[in-house]
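Lecture 7 notes: from sequence to structure.

We start with a single chain of 392 residues. Read the sequence below before looking at the structure.
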Amino acid sequence: MKRLYLKLKYEFNNKASDVTHKSVLRQKYELLYLLLERQFTPAEYYAYRFYEKDKKYGDMVKYISNSTLLDVIIPTLNKNSWMNIHDNKWLFHLYYDNFEIPITEVYGYYNYNGGLCKDGTSLSSPIDLKRFFRTMKPKNLVIKPVGGRCGKGILIFKNIEYYKNGNIEFITMADNQYNLDQVCHYIVNIQLNPKYPGVLLEKKVEQHSFFNNINPFTMNDIRIVTLMDKNNEVKIIFTGNRLGRKGSETANWARGGLSVYVDPETGVLGKGWQNPEYGGIWTEYHPDTKVKFKGQVIPMWNQIKSLSKKIATLTPELKIVGWDLVLTPTGPVVIEGNPIFNIEGVQANELRYSLDSVWEDLSEYGIRFKYKGFSLSKAILLYKAMKRWSRL
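Now the structure, written as tokens:
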């Protein structure tokens, strides 16, 4: 609890205040009220810029708090029995590989307890890994924990060089160099989620020149959140583009990348912003390349939307999913689906009026939040939200 108190104190006392901001007293009042009523954490309050004078209470409550998403919406809309298809990235590929869906190519699944390549050969020891590289000789590679989230543990090799003397050199997106022993050691030891042990070995896709021109340092993906209504009609409720930074291995917003608003109808890029933990900057230009992305139109946007809706229909018991796609020269490719996800990255850039329709769709499932006063159920949600935020 001491850590939680210190973090609350930090949030209250370390935010800039100027003529465009509400008074500190007003901010404290609003923050505490939103904590009790909707379980918005201080981090969300400042991420959504509720401290600005033009943000009214009616605007604030249209936003979806992470507590509401993770503890109410997702458990209501997504059945646990179907989540393994997405939570386990190996199962994800095996499942969607049966449909005419463009997904990434997977070489195999490393696990000390029965890992295997797509051709059925063993992939369960460092010896198997070395044989895989010397036999398959992939030109590039994406390593990702089978049960990883928020980009943790992902390592992307943009180039792999094979020499006549038997040495193999691996070059990451951030231009770091690895040898074969280091790569095998990384794969064997990167186990983040004991529920889903193992590591996926995946072919790196080539991204479209549109995104290479904006940011060539990482793969830049597109996040689309779909919601299936009671009539099994799929709607796109949030859209965003994540741009990585020079020196980073991934474009994930939680790891310091930029989250850029995308108009859901036209694919036009708006402003981008960075996770407040990494500076919280708002910009129209990529900080490293200085390329202006605001106003540019993502190519093949209608194909991207169509693919997102099509793949959402293949898991009818997962009503809300955050899809990650990469645009290649030949069209969009699905990287993964997330039935459990955070919402700050796309929601902070979303236009306010679009949130009205989202709540209208959620009301079909009985999610309305029209109750008044403080209750035991809200106390439980508040405890979960603060524990998650403070990482107690």
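The CA atoms of residues 80 and 293 lie 39 Å apart. Keep this in mind for problem set 3.
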